[in-house]
Amino acid sequence: MQPDSPRVDMADGRLVLSGDLLIGTVADLSCDTDGAHGVDIEQVARMDTAGAWFVLDLAARMGDAPVSGASDVQTLLLDTVRDNMPTGAPDAEPRQTIADRFEGVGRKVHDGWRIAVEMTGFLGQVVATLASLVIHPRRLRLTSLVHHMQEVGLNAVPIVALMSFLIGIVLAFQGSSQLRQFGAEVFVVDLIAISILRELGILLTAIIVAGRSGSAFTAAIGSMKMREEVDAMRTLGLEPVQILVVPRVLALILTLPLLGFIADISGLVGGAIMSWIELGVSPSVFRSRLVADIDLWQFGVGIIKAPFFALIIGVIGCYEGLKVGGNAESLGRLTSTSVVVSIFLVIVADALFSVFFALVGV
Predict the structure, then answer these.
(1) Which terminus of the chain has fewer Cβ atoms in its 10 Å neighbourhood, N or C?
(2) Concatenated DSSP letters for 245-291?
(3) Residues 157, 195, 168, 269, Cα dihedral to 10°
(4) Number of domains into which the chain is organized
(5) What does the angle CA 244 – CA 250 – CA 256 come to, to the nearest 5 degrees?
C-alpha cells in the first residue's frame, strides 16, 4: 500500500495536515508557521512516531499551539512521543575548582594505595602457595607447569635471541664510532659484555616476556573469569590461585633465567660479529678479552634479577586477570594495564638492584 503524500494547508489560522505522516513522507515536508495558531490533523490517515514528532515540533514552533482533530490512537501516540521528547539543552558540566582537582588527586592516590595493598596481599598468597608445594609437592600440577614452561619459555626463544642479537650489533656499532676517536677500539668488548650481561640482556628479556606472556596470562584468566569458570572452580572447592596462578608464576621463575642466559649469549655473538666487521676485532681477540676482563659476577648480577622479574610479571598478569569483569571492555583494559604495570615495576626493580649492587661493590 503506497502512502499518500502529506500536504499542509492554511485554514482559519490553523495548519491543516492531510495524507500519511510517516517516516518516509515527512522527511521532505516543510511549512511556514507564520500567522498560524494551531494544528489540525483530522484529515491525517496514518501517522507513526516520526509523523507525531513532526506535528509536535510544528506546535512547539508556534508556542505550544493546540493540536486538534486527533483520533484516540493518534492522541495516545502524540502523548507518548511528547513524554519522550527532550525537554531542553543538557546542563553544562560545572567548572572544576582547585578543591575539585585536589579531590581528584586524592582519590587517585587512595585508589593507588588500595591497589598496592591488594596486590601485596595477592603476592603473599602466591608465595605462601609456592611454599606449601615444598611441603606437599604432590599438589603441584606438573602437566600444567610443563605446558606453561613451553609457552613462556621455549616458544619465546626465537624473539628473545633475535632481539638480543640486534642489541649486541647496535652496541658494537655505536660504541665503535665513539671509541675509535680515542684509539680504544678494543674496549668495545668491555662495553658490550658489561652492558648486556649486567643490564640489557635480562632487562629487555623481561620486558618482552611481560608484553608477550604477562598479557597472555591476563587474557587467559580473564576469559575464564568472564565465562564464570573461576566461580565454578570455587564452587567445586578448588583454589584458583593454586590451579591457575601458581603454575604460570612458577613456569616464569624457572624459564626467565634460561631466557636471560640465551639473550646474553646472543647479544655477545652479535657484538662480536659487528666488532669484527667494524673494528677488525677478531673472534679470538674478542673471546680472550672477554675472559680476561669480565668476571663471573657480571653475568651473575643479571641472572640474579631474573626470578624477581619473573615473579613481578607473573603475579601482576594473574592478578589483573582475576579482576576482569563480565565484559570484553574490562578484559582489554586490564590486559593493557597488566603490560604497562609489569614493565614499569620491572624497570623500578632493576633500578633498585643497580643501587644495591653499587652499594655492596659488585
Answers:
(1) N
(2) IHHHHHHHHHHHHHHHHHHHHHHHHHHHHHHHHHH---HHHHHHHHH
(3) -70
(4) 2
(5) 130
State the virtual CA torsion across 151, 153, 154, 157 in degrees, nearest 10.
120
Measured CA to CA, the distance from residue 295 to residue 297 in angstroms comes to 5
DSSP state of 65: -
273 shares a domain with 175: yes
Q: In what order do the strands lie in the sheet with 14-21?
A: 7-11, 14-21, 39-47, 67-68
* 347 and 231 within one domain: yes
| CA distance linking residue 339 with residue 354, whole number of Å | 23
Domain containing 17: what range?
A: 7-84
N-to-C CA span, the chain? 91
Find the mean pLDDT for residues 101-110: 88
Mapped to the 3 state alphabet, what secondary structure does 110-170 carry? HHHHHHHHHHHHHHHHHHHHHHHHHHCHHHCCHHHHHHHHHHHCHHHHHHHHHHHHHHHHH
3-state secondary structure of 47: strand
Closest CA to 315 of 238, 244, 257: 244
Long-range CB contact pairs, 278-281, < 8 A, 24+: 278/172, 278/173, 278/176, 279/172, 279/176, 279/180, 279/185, 279/188, 280/185, 281/185, 281/186, 281/188, 281/189
Q: Which residue reads 600440577 in cell numbers?
A: 141
Residue 121 lies in a domain: no
pLDDT of residue 87: 65
Domain boundary residue, one of 59, 84, 109: 84
Q: What is the pLDDT of residues 245-286, one digit of tens each?
A: 899 999 999 999 999 999 999 999 998 888 888 777 788 888
Task: Indicate the pairing of strand 39-47 with strand 67-68.
Answer: parallel
The answer as to whether 130 is a domain residue is: no
Using CA atoms, how far apart are residues 333 and 311, in angstroms rounded to an integer?
A: 22
The pTM for the full model equals 0.71
Confirm if 189 and 281 have CB atoms less than 8 A apart: yes
